[in-house]
Amino acid sequence: MLTDTEGIVLRQIKTSYNRRMILLFSKKYGKISAGTSIQEKGRGKSSLALRPFTYGRYELFKNRASYNINSADVIKSYYAIGENVDKYMNGAYVLEFTERVLSEGVPAPGIFHLLLDFFDLLESRDRGIGTLVLGYQIKLFKYAGVAPQVDRCVHCGEKKEAYKFSIPEGGILCQECWEKMQNQQDKTEQKSFCTENSQQHTLIYDPEFGIVNILKYFTINSLKNLKNLALKEDTGRLLQKLIREYAAYHLDASDLKSEKLI
């Protein structure tokens, strides 16, 4: 069956017999792997549309178990990202992070348009690139259904001042609920040593540097509204650590190859 779809190239892999596998984030089918015989060295429109950081339109031959790209057209190539090392490394990290979060063959239109917004902003941005990446990840949590709850306590549901931010619980805890949890944990640990509880304790953050307010601001505002925002270095480093641990815990998105490059 012949079909077509808009898509964003996440990655490509060379295979045998001059073929390549393209990992495509398609608007219609979600994340798919598609083979193609289109030559990489060519300068035609189809060849240019098969490179990472490309948004294109793809003609696919689809059967029960696989896809093949017959032809492709570039809608927009974000070539400027590749001309700047910092932009390229951060863009590569976002592509790998997105690839890890997406489920095979499940359309994700919200994340699709979010990724395009990110590329538009990354291409034109001169400062605060790390802040933009963090904003993208926090917005992605919402579309993935694991957005942290930052406007009310995750336990009692009341709008109280944040006393702790808990990654395992998925949001903020008020002082009363936190103290109750600690008392219950102390009783449990008196009966038996619990490694899981001690590990989870390391995933608890104090709301320092206004970290909860930053999470709330990023959650409420669109990615485009963050284009002029650049966090201070210490705040950005803390938020980066929190976001990576949150993604690892709730989305199994950890140990990314590109993570060490940014």
UniProtKB/TrEMBL annotation:
Xref: InterPro entries: ARFGAP/RecO, DNA_rep/recomb_RecO_N, NA-bd_OB-fold, RecO, RecO_C
Keyword set, alphabetical order: DNA damage, DNA recombination, DNA repair
Gene3D superfamilies for this protein: Nucleic acid-binding proteins (2.40.50.140), Recombination protein O, C-terminal domain (1.20.1440.120)
Domain of life: Bacteria
One GO BP: DNA recombination
Domain DNA replication/recombination mediator RecO N-terminal: 1-78
A GO CC term assigned to this protein in UniProt: bacterial nucleoid
Task of the protein: Involved in DNA repair and RecF pathway recombination.
Family: Belongs to the RecO family.
Protein name: DNA repair protein RecO
